[in-house]
Every structure is written in C-alpha cells, then in structure tokens.
Amino acid sequence: DPSGKSTTRPQVTRGEVTVIALTGVDVRRRLAMELLNLADRFGAADPRGISIALNLSHELLASLVGASRQQVTEYLNGFDHDRIIFREGRRIIIDPEKLQKILKVVV
Question: Do residues 16 and 34 lie in contact, with contact meaning Cβ atoms separated by under 8 Å?
Fold first, then answer.
C-alpha cells in the first residue's frame, strides 16, 4: 500500500478504479455508474444480483464519484429503500438492471 497504512480488508486504489467525475452527470448517476463498474470488476453472483466483493465505505465511494459522504449516504439509502441495492454491513449487492435504468432516465 503506497500510503503505508496496513489493513486486512481489500483496498481499492485509484489505479484500479476509474474515478468518475463527469461534468454534467448528477451524483445519483455517477454513483450508479461506479457501483456497476465495481460489480463488473469485483462482483460475484448472488441470488439478489451481483455482490461487490469489497468492504466499501461511504467515504471511499464519495471520493470515487466526486461527491460528499453525506450525498453518497443519502443516495445509497434511497437505492436500498427502492431495492436497487441490498446492504450487509459494508458489503453491497446490486441489481444491475435497476442501476442501468437510472443511467437511462432523462431528467
């Protein structure tokens, strides 16, 4: 780990994941894109969808999508409420079809 910090959980580095900070794309869509990207790269099949095999903090997701931790928490809570994602601790299981629909909605 280049930061010198040691940890026992899997770590995501900016070299492994593209930081999504697209101009004109709202935080909700950027978060949906990043969850799909993480599921594609680190996902495993789950009866509910795709389980992202990483221990993801809201702070990490916020840094990946160029948003505040509070915004990410708000949108994740909304996704959870709408059954777009399922959470088990910090593990996230996504429904990829529902996340794809978020990307296709025109506001």
Answer: no
